[in-house]
Amino acid sequence: MLAGTSFRLAVLRRYGSAKHAATELFYERSGPIDTVLRRRPSHEADFSVALSQSAARVELLAFPLTLYDIAAIERGYRSAGVAGAEGIARITDAGPGSAFQAGDLVLALPGMAGTWRDQAIVPEAKRALVAVPAPLRKAIEDKVPGMLERAATLLGAPAIAHRLLEDNALQPGDTIVQNDAGSAVGLALVQLAGIRGIKTVSIVENEMLDDDEPIRGNEDPYAVVAERIKALGGDVVVSSSFAQQTAAFRELVSELAGPRGMPRFAFNGAGGASANQMLHCLQASGTMVTYSGRRATHPIVVSTSAFVERELTLKGFNLIHWLEGAPRERIQSMVDALSQAMVKGMLTGWLERKSFATLETADIATARHGSRARQLVAITKAGESYVQSAAS
């Protein structure tokens, strides 16, 4: 009896009292977040359970609230359970075959189901986690402002943007056009394109669609988002209503592209009218790549002449599928490159943080309708030690 009591006291000293007991956000069926998402005590709170050879026990430090996470809950893109697919964690215990050891900082891969929680047991750690590179880890441990939040998003929007540029063989001096540029992916595209010497034309949505909610007060108007894109290195930023003036928009794109001609690639995260407007700006045999985005469910209507006369190509990209199929060394190479850009301050995003302990469904719902320009990153109790001020 005494031994059991001593063990429980040790756990409380290590992981906090009942006031800060480990919790997780879960759902048992798909549906509206405010209906199906619940907070409960962690189902993996028994720290006396021995780990298998390949498993690791982790404390989550921070995780972003993404559009994919929300779609997974509301549209059933993933199996029910603990929500979340991205985040950064610290290894607290590891089996000898896991490839990790206590104290390592790691990023969640698709093999780790559920990141919206304080702690987890990862059965196949080698498949589900990737190590945070040493320079980024040092920056996090040194509490460089914003570094933990940036790292938590690395295998999300920055990775999508990296792959869009890397896999399509874009070169310095090229020009790309993108819509939904105020999204996390759009901002990452602007910064990573700038690093590569690629020019960007960014369309910012400024028109309400049927499933949008009004932005609260004067909180994130088009001008604020456009200014942020320019501050991150965007070359040309226009509203979606301006892009509808096809001739004027094409002329603007042509002036930026210069002697290389119209862009070869457009990146679509919105669908609908702005996607069609980008197609008009592609050169013959150009390509539009669609990735997940806030308005990506809105259809794209393409004329027959776009295929027959201009030989345009439409294709899609899914980061989860890429991560599941890519060789480990290729994933690590991408993580290393993005980490380097983050440490150098060249890949910052536009982030705000909130304590996981006080996170409400209302906070998550703001991301669903784009009524929050900054991407929200939740910081757990364990993660608070890596930020200068968890209260801000």
From TrEMBL:
<dbReference type="GO" id="GO:0006631">
    <property type="term" value="P:fatty acid metabolic process"/>
</dbReference>
<keyword id="KW-0560">Oxidoreductase</keyword>
<keyword id="KW-0521">NADP</keyword>
<keyword id="KW-0496">Mitochondrion</keyword>
<dbReference type="GO" id="GO:0005739">
    <property type="term" value="C:mitochondrion"/>
</dbReference>
<dbReference type="InterPro" id="IPR011032">
    <property type="entry name" value="GroES-like_sf"/>
</dbReference>
<dbReference type="InterPro" id="IPR051034">
    <property type="entry name" value="Mito_Enoyl-ACP_Reductase"/>
</dbReference>
<dbReference type="InterPro" id="IPR036291">
    <property type="entry name" value="NAD(P)-bd_dom_sf"/>
</dbReference>
<keyword id="KW-0809">Transit peptide</keyword>
<protein>
    <recommendedName>
        <fullName>Enoyl reductase (ER) domain-containing protein</fullName>
    </recommendedName>
</protein>
<dbReference type="GO" id="GO:0016491">
    <property type="term" value="F:oxidoreductase activity"/>
</dbReference>
<comment type="similarity">
    <text>Belongs to the zinc-containing alcohol dehydrogenase family. Quinone oxidoreductase subfamily.</text>
</comment>
